[in-house]
Amino acid sequence: MSPEQLNKLQKLRAVFENGYATTSDIKELSELLTLINHRVNDDDLETTQLTIQSAIQF
Known about the structure:
mainly alpha
């Protein structure tokens, strides 16, 4: 997660905790979490690929 994404997530959390979330905030949170989850999945895939490549080389 990038520092910008973390900052945005913290701001959205405050909005939700205070009970002021709008439909726009819900959509923004959904999109942000999708981006974060895709990034985590990409990192996991890259780690798996590197592990497989290392195993094949030996």
